[in-house]
Amino acid sequence: MTGFLGRYEYQLDGKGRVSLPADYRRKAAGSRFVLLQWEPTHLTLFPEDVWSEVRERLLQLRRHRRDLSKLLREVMSRATDVAPDKQGRILIPGWFKERAGLDGGVLLVGAMDRIEIWNPDVFRAQHPDDLAADSEMTEEIHGIFG
Asked: pLDDT tens across 70-113, in order?
């Protein structure tokens, strides 16, 4: 899989569903997802195969780091299974929408092996289109390609 790339702005419908971009649907064909609030600013949508790897790492943490039990419990309580319907839409439960500030427009951001779901205004505030602002980090990342 080449991964999820780009950003797409869509509207939530009246039932709280959002369409996945055709490119994302092709890359995760037939896949179920795990939707969770991994970070306070946005939701994360893990395809089934990626979630399987994440789940294994979380289980290892739980086995070897008992001090993380409370944190892992909190993360897992903010997770749910979702599956695209025949039109390629996923349902975002109400409490997820509320916690991530999703109302109307949503921004779907490809994050390589997962999809992030943002309030477009929050995303733009945290990620202005100014790569020069992080020039040192940008040079490091670009070094990967050159």
From this structure: 888 888 898 999 999 999 999 999 999 999 999 999 999 999 99
How many structural domains are present in the chain? 1
Q: Is residue 53 part of a domain?
A: yes
User: What distance in Å separates the CA atoms of residue 120 and residue 118, rounded to the nearest whole number?
Assistant: 6
Instruction: Tell me whether residue 2 is in a domain.
Output: no
CA torsion sign for 105, 109, 115, 117 is: negative
Burial classification of residue 111, based on how many CB atoms lie within 10 Å of its CB (0-12 exposed, 13-18 middle, 19 or more buried):
middle
Query: pTM of the full predicted structure?
Result: 0.86
